Amino acid sequence: MLFYFPRPVKSKLILFITILASAIQSYAENGYDLWLRYQKIENPEMLAHYRETIHSFSVEGNSPTTEIIKSELERGLIGLLDTTIKTDEDNSSVQLKLTRSIDEIEGFATKELHDEGYIIRSSNLSGIIIASPTEIGLLYGTFHFLRLLQTQQEIDQLNIIDNPKVDRRILNHWDNLDRTSERGYAGFSIWDWHKLPVYLDKRYTDYARANASIGINGTVLTNVNANALILTPQYLEKVKALADLFRPYGIKVYLTARFSAPIEIGGLETADPLEKSVQKWWNEKAKEIYSYIPDFGGFLVKANSEGQPGPQNYGRTHADGANMLAEALQPFGGIVMWRAFVYSNEEPVDRAMQAYNEFKPLDGQFENNVIVQVKNGPIDFQPREPFHPLFGAMPQTPVMMEFQITQEYLGQATQMVYLAPMYKEVLDSDTYAKGKGSPVAKVIDGSLFEHDLNGIAGVANIGTDINWTGHPMAQSNWYAFGRLTWNSELTARTIAEEWVRMTFGNEGKMVSTICNMLMSSWETSINYMTPLGLNHLMATGHHYGPGPWVDYLPRADWNPTYFHRADKEGVGFDRTEKGSNAVNQYFSPLSKVFNSRKKTPEKFLLWFHHVKWDDKMKSDRILWEELGWKYQSGINEVRTFIDQWESLKGSIDDERHQQVSMLLQIQLDEAIWWKDACMTYFQTFSEMPFPDFMVTPTKDLEYFKKKEKSTPYAPGTRPQW
Ligand code: GCW
Questions:
Q1: Which of 278, 295, 330, 493 has its CA 20 to 30 A from that of 629?
Q2: Residue 715 within any structural domain of the chain
C-alpha cells in the first residue's frame, strides 16, 4: 500500500515523529532500565574498536537460559554498538563465543571454576570466549562482558576468571500479601498476588534479569513477619509461577515460614516442634511445596522476635525450632535461614547483647542445612553499628549476613545514601575469632570455619515505583549489594564507578562528581543523624525523622532514650566492663579496645561509652561542641552535594537530574531538621550554649516534638503497628 501525503502534512508528520522520538528518549530515562540501559557508546574510537571486534556471536546450547543469553547479547550489543549483530548459528567465523566446553580452553584447569563462575578470554586468533561449566555461569559471563562495554573498558587482552565468593546471594522482600511492603519506600510490593499465577507482569522478568546481571541467585518473596497463607496451595501455585519464571535466570525462590502455620492453616492445636503431629505437618508441607517447586530454596524464619511465634512459646529452643524445619526440608535439599534478630521484653540485659546470649550457647546444635542469619550490627540496621559479635562466635554453625538495602534508618527514599562503604566496613572488620586476619567476610563466605553452607541476604529496596527504588540513587544500593555478595573484595568506589557509568554515562567529570557524592554520602548521613556512635534516635513507628526524646513506648528498648542515655553529666551507652559489659562479647583485642574510652574509635564512642559533655575529643573540641560540629558538617556536606549535582545539569537527562535535585533539597531540609531537633533536645542536658560554628535552631523543642507526630502516614510503617 502506498501512502501519499501532500507536502505540509508530511512535514507535520516528520515533526510529529521527531517529537515522538524525543518523548521516547525522555521516557527511556525514567530509571526503569536501571544499569542495563545499553545506550550507544559515546566515545567514537571505542565505538569503532568494539564494532570491529564484535559483529557476531554464538551461544552453545538451546534452553531457556541460552535464549535469555542470546537476547541479552543482541539487545546489549545492538544498543551499545548501534549496528547489526549476527548470531552465527554455524559457529564458523564468530568473534564472541559462549561455550561450556572448558576443557578445550588452552592452559586452563576446570577446577579453577565454581559452578556459577566463568572465564572471559580474548585472543587475536579466535576472538573472545566466554566459558563456564553451567549455563547460568554463561549468563553471568554475558553480563560481565556487556558491563565491560558499558563502562568502556579495553577488551583486547581479556583474561578474566570470576567466581562468586558466597554461594547464596539472596534478596529478602519484606512484602506482605496485601502488597504493602514493610520498610518499603518505593511504592507497593511488585508481587501482584491477586493476578498471579495467570498474569505474569513484565516486571517479574525485568526483576530477574536485573538480579542475574549482578549475580543475585535467590529471593525470599515474603515478609519475615510472616503470613501462613503463603504456604497454602492457592498461594503456592502463585509462587510456582514466579519460580518458573526466575529459574532460567538462576534465581531460586524461598519463603518465610510462620512458626504457627500448623495451627493457622493446618488445624493443629499446637506448633510445638517436638510434637510428632507438628513435625509430620511440616514434613508433608515441605513435600507439597517441592511438588510445585522442585528447586525450592527453603525457609527464612523470624521466630520469637517482636511478637512472632516460635519454639520458645512451647519452652523449646531456637535450635529445636530450626531443626524441625530443617529435617522437613532435608530430603529435598532445602535450607533454613533462621534469624538471630531476637530480643526479649522481659530481659533486663542490654539489648545489644541479647542475640549473642541466646544463640552462642546453641552453637553446634543445628542441623547441617540450617544457617543462622545475623544482622550486620547488634541493634537494628542503624546508620552505623559495630559488627555483630555473633560473627566469629559460632564456629560450628554456618552464619550468614543480613544487610538492609532498603533505607529504614538511613533516609528512606528521600535521601541519597550509598551503602557500599557501610557494607564494606562491616565485611572488612576483623573479628579476631581466629586471631588477626579473621574478617567478617571470611566468616560469612564459610572459609574461616570451613562451612559449605554460606550466604548473604539483603532486605530489598524494590517496589512498584517506575524506577524500582524510589530515589534514583537508591538503585546503586541494590547494585552494590549484588556486586559485593559476588565479590566482597571489590571496593565501594569501583562499584560506584561501574554503576554511575552504566546508569548515567561515561563522561569523565560526571562520573567522578557522582562517585564523589556517593562515596561521602553515608558518612554525611551519619553526621547529620547519629554521629559519634549515637543510634536509634529516630521517630517512633515509621522511623522517619528525629525523635530522641521518645520515652513512652511500652518496651524500654524501643525508646530512643534507652539508646542514648543522655543526662546532665553526658551522653552514650556504657557498654564497658563497668556498664553492660557488651564489650566482652568481642574477641580480644577488640574487647579491650572497645572497653577503653581512649582507644575506642570516635565513630563508635557513644555506642560503648557514656561520655561527659565537656570531655575532650581528638579534635580538641569538647564532646558537646563536637556533636554540633558533626551535625553542622552533615548539613554543609549536603549543600555541597547540591552544588555538585547542579554542576551536572545538561550532562544528565533532565528527568533524572531534576528528580535528584528535588530530593537533595528534601535531604537538606531533613538534615537541618535532624540537627536542630537533636541539638535542641541534647541541650536540655548539656545546658551549654550552641557552638558558634553551628547555625542556631530557630524553633524550640516543643515544635520538634509536635513535628515528630505530624507524619503518621510516613511510608513503610509496619501495618500491625
Ligand atoms: O528493623 C526492624 C524493623 C521491623 C522489622 C524487624 C526485623 C520485619 O523496624 O519492621 O520487621 O526489624 O528485622 O525483623
A1: 493
A2: no
CA atoms within 13 A on the CB side of 238: 18
- Relative to the CA of 381, which ligand 1 atom is closest? 1
pLDDT digits (tens, 9 = 90+) for 87-140: 876 666 778 989 888 877 777 777 789 999 999 998 777 789 999 999 999 999
* Residue 617 vs residue 27, higher pLDDT: 617
Q: Is 182 in the pocket of ligand 1 (CB under 6 A)?
A: yes
Long-range contacts of 69-72 (CB under 8 A, 24+ apart): 69/98, 69/135, 69/138, 69/139, 69/142, 72/139, 72/142, 72/143, 72/146, 72/209
| Ligand 1 atom closest to Cα of residue 225 | 8
Task: Give me ligand 1 centre to Cα 299, in Å.
Answer: 17
128 and 222 in a common domain: no
Q: Are residues 541 and 402 in the same domain?
A: no
Cβ of 302 below 6 Å from ligand 1: yes
Q: How many domains does the chain have?
A: 3
Residue 511 lies in a domain: no
Q: How many angstroms is it from 482 CA to the middle of ligand 1?
A: 21
Q: State whether the beta carbon of 225 lies less than 6 angstroms from ligand 1.
A: yes
Q: 420-428 and 492-503 helices cross at what angle (nearest 10)?
A: 160
Global pTM?
Answer: 0.95
Atom of ligand 1 nearest to the CA of 459: 13
Active site residues: 306, 380, 408
pLDDT tens figures, 444-478: 999 999 999 999 999 999 999 999 999 999 999 99
How does pLDDT run across 163-208, given as a tens digit for each residue? 999 999 999 999 999 999 999 999 999 999 999 999 999 999 999 9
Co-location of 412 and 556 in the same domain: no
- Residue 129, H or E segment: strand 127-131
Please say which residue of 463, 490, 517 terminates a domain: 490
Question: Residue 110 has what DSSP assignment?
Answer: G
Q: Ligand 1 within 6 A of 175 CB? A: no
221 and 324, same structural domain? yes
Atom of ligand 1 nearest to the CA of 305: 14
- 110/173 same-domain check: no
The answer to whether 69 and 138 have CB atoms below 8 angstroms apart is yes
Give yes or no: residues 292 and 393 share one domain.
yes
Is residue 516, in this structure, part of any structural domain at all? no
Q: Is the CB of 718 under 6 A from ligand 1?
A: yes
223 Cα–ligand 1 center, Å? 10
Residue 452: phi and psi, rounded to 5, are -75, -30
The reply to whether 565 and 548 lie within a common domain is yes
Task: For residue 248, give Cα distances in angstroms to 134, 161, 332, 714.
Answer: 12, 23, 20, 38
Assign 299 to helix, strand or coil.
Answer: strand
> Whose grid coordinates read 541534647?
682
**Residues of the domain holding 411:** 168-490
Examine residue 551 and state whether it is found in any structural domain, yes or no.
Answer: yes
